[in-house]
């Protein structure tokens, strides 16, 4: 019942609209658009650190990537169920993420990477300039591999603020997103609104990570952000153009190759 009440509360209060407004200079999630038009499975890698891993969640099903999958199924009911791979590692920095990007992301051939970043650097002495460079390098590698990208900025929790750099890193994630025309889920701001609505229930008992309630809110936001970021037509075409059909055929062939390689 808690989950049902939470969803109704989010929809009624309109809290999930803060960061999903599409900006003209943000890249369209082209792969997601194509998958929907082609009626094909969407492949997503959720990348990052403990937010993605789900530290503080009561079970794997309560992590934000799992919740995001639930809402994507609801938002895109006529598509095959998306594949969401959780590639979060507790304690990782962006540099650490980049070191394992080939194995944990590129080799999975996703359509989209949703990346939480800019948290652990606030505690380990990494400068904003060093973070910006590492984030830029990672995002550019994803773009070069024709992967759509969405970023998630840090959480606004009491013990994250104790780093003394919370606002700086929230801004730093947004700055790199703006520079590379990548959409950013502004969790740092959203959590202020969520706290007004749901109070401390959104935060885990360590006052640093998110709780089941917080992760459900983030999963809901992420699913909405992805669908809106794809800039889908109001009505999907009943007949594909030659170019659309060629794109669909190419993606289907690539999927078959991936399936062959992974079996």
Task: Tell me what you see in this structure.
The chain is α/β, with parallel strands linked by helices and 263 residues long. It has a single domain (2-7, 19-261), classed as Rossmann fold (3-Layer(aba) Sandwich). It is 52% helix and 10% strand. It has helices at 2-13, 30-38, 50-53, 64-75, 94-99, 101-104, 121-124, 128-144, 158-161, 166-180, 187-198, 212-229, 242-261, and strands spanning 43-48, 83-88, 112-116, 148-152, 183-185. It has a 5-stranded parallel sheet with strand order 2-1-3-4-5, sandwiched between helices. α8 (128-144) runs parallel beside α10 (166-180). Mean pLDDT is 91; it is low at 7-13.
What percent of the residues sit in helical stretches (DSSP H or I)? 40-55%
CATH class: Alpha Beta
**Envelope shape:** globular
What would the CATH topology be? Rossmann fold
Tell me the CATH superfamily: SGNH hydrolase
Mean pLDDT: 91
| Termini Cα gap | 40 Å
Spatial strand sequence of the major β-sheet: 2-1-3-4-5
- Total number of helices: 13
| Topology as a string of helices (H) and strands (E) | HHEHHEHHEHHEHHEHHH
What would CATH call the architecture?
A: 3-Layer(aba) Sandwich
Characterize the largest beta sheet: strand count, sense, and whether it forms a barrel: 5 strands, parallel
């Amino acid at each position: 019942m808690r989950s049902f009440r939470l969803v109704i509360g989010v929809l009624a209060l309109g809290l999930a609209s803060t960061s999903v407004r599409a900006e003209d200079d943000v890249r369209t999630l082209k792969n997601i658009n194509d998958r929907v038009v082609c009626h094909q499975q969407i492949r997503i890698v959720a990348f990052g650190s403990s937010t993605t891993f789900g530290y503080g969640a009561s079970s794997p099903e309560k992590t934000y990537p799992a919740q995001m999958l639930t809402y994507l199924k609801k938002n895109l009911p006529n598509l095959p169920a998306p594949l969401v791979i959780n590639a979060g590692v507790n304690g990782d920095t962006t540099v650490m993420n980049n070191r394992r990007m080939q194995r944990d992301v590129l080799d999975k051939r996703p359509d989209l990477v949703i990346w939480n970043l800019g948290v652990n650097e606030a505690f380990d002495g990494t400068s904003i300039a060093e973070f910006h460079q590492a984030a830029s390098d990672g995002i550019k590698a994803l773009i070069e591999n024709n992967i759509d990208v969405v970023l998630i900025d840090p959480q606004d929790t009491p013990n994250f603020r104790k780093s003394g750099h919370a606002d700086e890193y929230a801004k730093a994630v947004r700055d790199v997103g703006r520079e590379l025309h990548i959409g950013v889920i502004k969790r740092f701001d959203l959590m202020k609104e969520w706290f007004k609505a749901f109070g401390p229930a959104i935060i885990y008992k360590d006052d640093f990570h998110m709780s089941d309630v917080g992760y459900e809110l983030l999963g809901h936001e992420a699913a909405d952000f992805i669908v809106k970021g794809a800039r889908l037509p109001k009505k999907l075409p009943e007949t594909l153009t030659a170019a659309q059909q060629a794109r669909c055929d190419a993606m289907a062939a690539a999927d078959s190759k991936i399936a062959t390689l992974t079996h």
